[in-house]
Amino acid sequence: MVEIASTKRYSECKLLLSWPGFIFLVRFATICLTLASLVLFGDLQKSLSGHQIRAAFNENDSPQTQNAVPSTQRDAVPSNEEEGRAAVHHASSPKHYYKSYPGLANETSIACGGHKATSCDQCPQGHGASWCNGDCEWSHGACARSSKLEHIHPDYFRIIQRYAFQPVKNNNGEYVNIILVRSPFREVDDEDVYLFYKDDIIFLGISSFESFPLESPNPYSHSDRGKIMEEKYLNLFPGFLHMMRDPEDHFPQNVERILMSQSDFMLDAPEKFGQEHANDEKIYDFVYSGGDQDVETDCVGWASYNKNFSFVRDALEVMCSSEFNVTGVLVANKNKDGTKACTIPAICHGKIVQTTFLGQKEFFGYLAKARWAFLPQVCDASPRVSTQAMAMNLPLLMNRNIMGGWKYLVPGQTGEFFHDMSDFKDSLRIILDNTRGENSPYKPLEFVKDNYGNANSGKRLFEFVKKHWGNRIKFPEGTSELLPTGA
Ligand SMILES: *[C@@H]1O[C@H](CO)[C@@H](O)[C@H](O)[C@H]1NC(C)=O
Ligand SMILES: *[C@@H]1O[C@H](CO)[C@@H](O)[C@H](O)[C@H]1NC(C)=O
Ligand SMILES: *[C@@H]1O[C@H](CO)[C@@H](O)[C@H](O)[C@H]1NC(C)=O
């Protein structure tokens, strides 16, 4: 019932604002004059219900916009006036008649402030303006879509509820009409949702999860597997924020691409933390972040594979030896209660600290007390830890085979690479000698400030989108950076 009522309101609103609506008014006036002598004006008003008016209007004038939307979809037309107005505004092209993907229409994902609803006009529940916040705002006595959201598709928030879809904001914290696809589709109808909205929202791929869009080599992965899947994602979106050294070997020509990862962004917090803790005593050589390791199975499993923990065990034999006497921290290497830790070489006891999964601040706390970050992983498209450590002025000891994040490492300037066990000792020796003394040659903070962070990467992403899809999108006023958020 609610849906029908709101459809009616939307149609009426549209009727009055549109050119055919004007014609209708003229016609209505003519009918009134003709019948005036026979029927009282009040009776005529009563007899012509809203439905009859619209029915007559549809039959006689049949504007394309009315028929452009199948009736099943018309039921899902926005249920508040703000959305209605936005849709009418778009309706200069009949194609832009706003409609919802049927499976999304009933989702209670509109944020009202403290609670959620299927649409803004469902937010107040009799409580008025105080229950109308979040994505909505109180206007002319009703709860309507926030005017701050006029640049994005009305279903934007419904779509980003799904893991694969990630929102984008501008430098002022406003959402823009772009959604990043960061992993293979998960829900059965994710692909249908994408296909339904792809002309009205700009969807771009982003490498973030496992080796997406490439096939995951992780044997514990639950993602869709196989070359066919890989080819599908490589050619599905008009553009891709990727991590590859050789993108031309993978993407078809028609896909616009930019070397850019989630880990290029949001480095202010670690930088600030680093400044505040610049005088902390360095008590560890390295920190290794294990994501959330598979402690119950002794660090064998999906997360441990991603962070190459099997290699860490071999490397520890070398690092803990009396030749190097390395001290370090293995983060997320203990279960939540701190009662069980992954096994490490006996030689490391007293030299290596193992922690439970840490919050951001605690993690930064360990980085501030360390000389460098250890990134032995291969299967990682966007290693956040690398840029976080660099923003705290820590260089990296990094696996040369890493899928993403290799671009942050300039040997001698931001850290050292190794390939495997054969050259690990050499690289370890170099970074230890360079960082244990007073005058480190590395300038990782300078490097990330010059090349990454929101100011640099946000601007580059904005230019990339403007260049290729500028004709398809309107940005909120004052937009100068685009920032992937919510990851
Ligand atoms: C949405 O809700 C309406 C009213 O309860 C119902 O008739 C319709 O089938 C629902 N649509 C979907 C896709 O679940
Ligand atoms: C490592 O520590 C052991 C025992 O404390 C010591 O004998 C050895 O000289 C140290 N090696 C280096 C390279 O500092
Ligand atoms: C770990 O690193 C080594 C050395 O580069 C590599 O040979 C191995 O394939 C990696 N394993 C995983 C699971 O990433």
Helicity range: 25-40%
Range of strand content: 5-15%
Bound molecules: 2-acetamido-2-deoxy-beta-D-glucopyranose
**CATH-derived topology of the largest domain:** Rossmann fold
The helix count comes to 18
Cα-to-Cα separation, first versus last residue? 38 Å
Secondary structure blueprint with pairings:
Blueprint: H1 2-17, H2 19-35, H3 41-47, H4 50-61, H5 64-67, H6 71-74, H7 81-90, E1 110-111, E2 116-117, E3 136-139, E4 142-145, H8 156-159, E5 165-170, E6 175-181, H9 190-197, E7 202-206, H10 227-234, E8 239-242, E9 256-259, H11 268-276, E10 284-289, H12 302-306, H13 309-319, E11 328-331, E12 352-354, H14 360-368, E13 370-375, H15 384-391, E14 396-399, E15 415-418, H16 421-436, H17 444-451, H18 453-469, E16 482-484
Parallel strand pairs: 6-7, 7-8, 8-9, 10-11, 10-13, 11-12, 13-14, 14-15
Antiparallel strand pairs: 1-2, 3-4, 5-6, 5-16
Helix pairs in contact: 1-2, 1-7, 11-15, 13-16, 15-17
Bound molecules: 2-acetamido-2-deoxy-beta-D-glucopyranose (NAG) (3 copies).
